[in-house]
Design goal:
alpha+beta, 12 helices, globular
């Protein structure tokens, strides 16, 4: 049995976002007011999880969700990472403490409703008030850089399209995509449903046919310009049709597991504040990831053309945002629009608790 207050908190907290809906966490119940987060990263199979940082950020969003959900019960959550555990498996003790002075966090109402919208949004600019609230949400250790206006949005859309060309033409990414898409469904509790991908019916049929084997993908890319349709629908159009793009940067270059956990907490407050203001949101992390491979000199793919393109991405990002790219922790787009009809859900709590 899961203690009632822990169950209530984790039922909300499990809606934290994670790359490709991997949910890299499990829970161990210790007592009525103490549980452990057993985190893990996906660097051993996911090309997008460079040094486990994407998973560490995801676990940070979970930590923030727990703190927010606990406030709904008048509890303060205290977190302590177990230092004797390897960085590939961040392990965090969580203790719940009654606190009469704690206020209910208004973001608790948006924990279940925060979503990713991959389709085009309104180009109506964000208001100064909206931007200020979002900037305030990340706290003093982080800053937000905005890319706005038609010309700059188009520049960013083209950059995203170039990044997508890497994503769609390397076998290392194909293996990830093959595992994380669930076909013919509106929702998925452990993957991304195909109908949430952002493609129209023709694009979905083509993608499903191609994803049956790498040889099909490679054939389309070599002889039939196979990347153009998904890049148009998933990158160019959404990249232009939005209110703004943003980059969240840390004041200091993040280096440790704790730095990336803290970044995840700030990112989650930004994302939840987006939902609170009735706006839609989509992460745009692959340019940061591929440019980071380039900066570190890591050979992330056998495809030399993709490695050259990653070098160009690094230069283009620096030109667009004009700050130290090593401080960047998250990138995305935002704008007004309807909620997606299809979305990733989450594993039931009973599948996430280890010692029921």
């Amino acid at each position: 049995m899961i203690p009632e207050k822990i169950e209530k908190i984790l039922e909300l907290a499990r809606w934290a976002p994670s790359g490709d809906n991997t949910q890299p966490w499990r829970f161990e119940i210790v007592s009525e007011s103490h549980f452990v987060i057993h985190g893990y990263d996906t660097r051993d199979w996911c090309v997008y999880d460079l040094d486990g940082h994407a998973s560490q950020i995801a676990i940070g969003t979970l930590v923030e969700n727990i703190a927010i959900a606990a406030s709904d019960l008048g509890l303060r959550a205290e977190f302590r990472r177990q230092r004797d555990q390897p960085e590939t498996t961040p392990t965090i003790d969580v203790k719940l403490i009654g606190d009469v002075g704690i206020a209910r966090d208004p973001l608790v109402d948006f924990l279940r409703h925060r979503v990713t919208q991959r389709r085009p949004l309104s180009t109506m600019p964000l208001t100064p008030v909206q931007k200020q609230r979002l900037e305030d949400s990340v706290g003093p250790e982080y800053s937000v850089t905005w890319i706005e206006g038609a010309a700059n949005r188009w520049r960013l859309a083209r950059l995203l399209s170039r990044s997508a060309k890497i994503r769609l033409t390397i076998p290392e990414a194909y293996e990830v995509h093959r595992q994380i898409i669930e076909w013919n469904t509106q929702t998925s509790d452990d993957r991304i449903p195909d109908k949430a991908a952002g493609l129209d019916p023709v694009g979905l049929k083509l993608m499903r046919w191609a994803m049956a084997s790498w040889s099909r993908v490679d054939f389309l890319n070599r002889y039939l310009a196979g990347t153009w349709l998904p890049r148009l629908q998933l990158d160019l159009l959404p990249g232009f049709f939005c209110g703004a793009h943003f980059l969240i940067s840390a004041r200091e270059v993040p280096k440790s597991v704790d730095d990336f956990l803290d970044a995840g907490r700030a990112i989650q407050r930004f994302w939840l504040t987006t939902a609170q203001q009735g706006l839609q949101f989509q992460p745009e992390m692959t340019p940061l990831i591929f440019s980071r491979f380039s900066e570190l000199g890591i050979v992330f793919t056998e495809k030399s053309a993709a490695r050259r393109l990653a070098n160009e991405l690094s230069e283009q990002l620096a030109s667009l945002f004009g700050n130290n790219p090593n401080r960047a922790v998250f990138m995305g787009r935002i704008g007004a629009g309807g909620s997606p009809r299809s979305r990733s859900t989450r594993r039931p709590l009973r599948e996430l608790v280890l010692n029921q």
